[in-house]
Each structure stands twice: as C-alpha cells, then as structure tokens.
Design goal:
The protein has about 160 residues and is mainly alpha-helical. The chain is about 75% helix and about 0% strand. Helix 1 crosses helix 4, helix 3 packs across helix 4 and helix 4 runs antiparallel to helix 5.
C-alpha cells in the first residue's frame, strides 16, 4: 500500500513540478498550508463568535450576512478556509504516509496529527450546528441518535 502511494505521489509531484516548478510546488509545503489555514480559521472564527448570539442563531447569521463588506466576506473566508483545511489536511496526511513518515521518531507527530484531524472535523460539525438551520438541526439530531443520547425516545422535529 505504501509503495503504491509513493508511486502515485511521485507522479503527482512530477506533474506539479511541471506546472509550478520545483521551487513553487504547493505540495511540498502542504504542512505549512494546513497551519496557515488553521490560523485563518482561528482568526475568522473568533471574529464571527463575537457577533453570534446563542439565543438567536439564525438571526445572528442573517445579521452577519447582511453586512456584505465585512460580515459576509469574513463568513465566506471562514467557510472556504474550512473546506480547504480539510483537503489540505488529507493531502498532507497522504504525503506523510506515502513517504513513510509515520513511524519511529515521527510517531508522536502522526498521532497528534490524527487527533488534530478529529478536532478539525468536530469543529466543522459544531460550525454547521451553530447556524441551526435545517441542515444543522438534522446534524445535531443525527449525532444524538447515533451516540444513543435519546435512548429510544422519539424526537419530534417541527
């Protein structure tokens, strides 16, 4: 599996080197890209939470979106940075696996990266639930049913 991954990675790197040159190949900087995206998510998430009201989630999002220059732009940056962070994290994990950088002295880094990936997905889930639209409500109910919080109780969604 690792040899096949390394062969695929070598071909992808060769293609990216032809497109960008070896000096500017973004695949060589996958870890840095992930860190920059995480910092972007942290900054925009903290800014968005300043204007979020727990008692009125939908109204908070609508008020933010109404301000096209700041609110809508920051919300869009946060959304697309979160999508890019998931993709960049997967690319980085694939790269580290293919190059055999998951054992020995780097085992702790691999484990911490797995925990950070889980944290990223958990934060993405909470981000969808915070909006509390139809999709966020179904995510919350799906998780509560999935982990057994409801214990067979019927959930009424109105």
């Amino acid at each position: 599996m690792q040899k096949l991954s390394l062969r695929l990675l070598t071909r992808i790197d060769a293609l990216a080197n032809r497109l960008y040159s070896a000096r500017l190949n973004p695949l060589y900087q996958s870890g840095t890209i992930v860190v920059v995206l995480y910092l972007t998510l942290l900054a925009t998430g903290l800014w968005l939470i300043l204007f979020y009201r727990v008692g009125a989630p939908w109204e908070s999002v609508a008020r933010l979106t109404a301000n096209a220059w700041i609110g809508n732009w920051v919300r869009g940056l946060h959304r697309y940075a979160s999508d890019a962070a998931v993709v960049a994290t997967l690319v980085h994990a694939f790269r580290m696996f293919a190059q055999g950088r998951s054992w020995g002295a780097r085992a702790l880094a691999w484990v911490s990266g797995g925990l950070l990936t889980f944290l990223l997905l958990l934060c993405g889930w909470t981000g969808y639930v915070l909006v509390w639209d139809t999709f966020g409500e179904r995510l919350a109910i799906g998780l509560s049913v999935g982990i057994g919080i409801t214990r067979g109780q019927r959930i009424w969604v109105g």
